[in-house]
Design brief:
Blueprint: H1 2-17, E1 24-27, E2 33-37, H2 44-71, H3 73-76, H4 80-94, E3 99-105, E4 110-116
Antiparallel strand pairs: 1-2, 2-3, 3-4
Helix pairs in contact: 2-4
Length: about 120
């Protein structure tokens, strides 16, 4: 029976180690509510977004090159929204998993801070 209680203690320690990835809500002495959201981290959505953006650019890149080689710059401008959409998906795969946020709401002022890769 003592061995099961010691294994439960180890499980509790493991859960406490993961507490750095939990959102934190605090209230300061200056009447400010602070919400801290950690980065989402790498999961299956990141891999699917990365794979999709690689496939997207493998189709959009040659199409843009083909338009530039045959019709000049005017037809290639048609592809700009496709490059922007692919860039947004690539950003979701490369940057967004490492962005943490902090929202501070005070009596007269509120701020939203985003930290990229744990830098300010």
């Amino acid at each position: 029976m003592s061995s099961s209680s010691s294994s439960q203690g180890n499980d509790r320690e493991r859960v406490q180690d993961k507490s750095t990835f939990v959102s934190r809500i605090s209230y300061t002495d200056a009447n400010t509510l602070q919400l801290e959201l950690p980065p989402s981290g790498i999961d299956s959505n990141v891999f699917f977004s990365g794979a999709f953006s690689a496939l997207w650019f493998s189709a959009v890149g040659p199409a843009t090159i083909g338009m530039l080689s045959t019709g000049g710059i005017a037809p290639a401008l048609f592809m700009v929204p496709f490059w922007l959409a692919g860039g947004m998906v690539a950003k979701m795969a490369v940057v967004d998993p490492f962005v943490s946020s902090k929202l501070s709401i005070g009596d007269y002022l509120w701020t939203l801070e985003k930290n990229y890769f744990r830098r300010i």
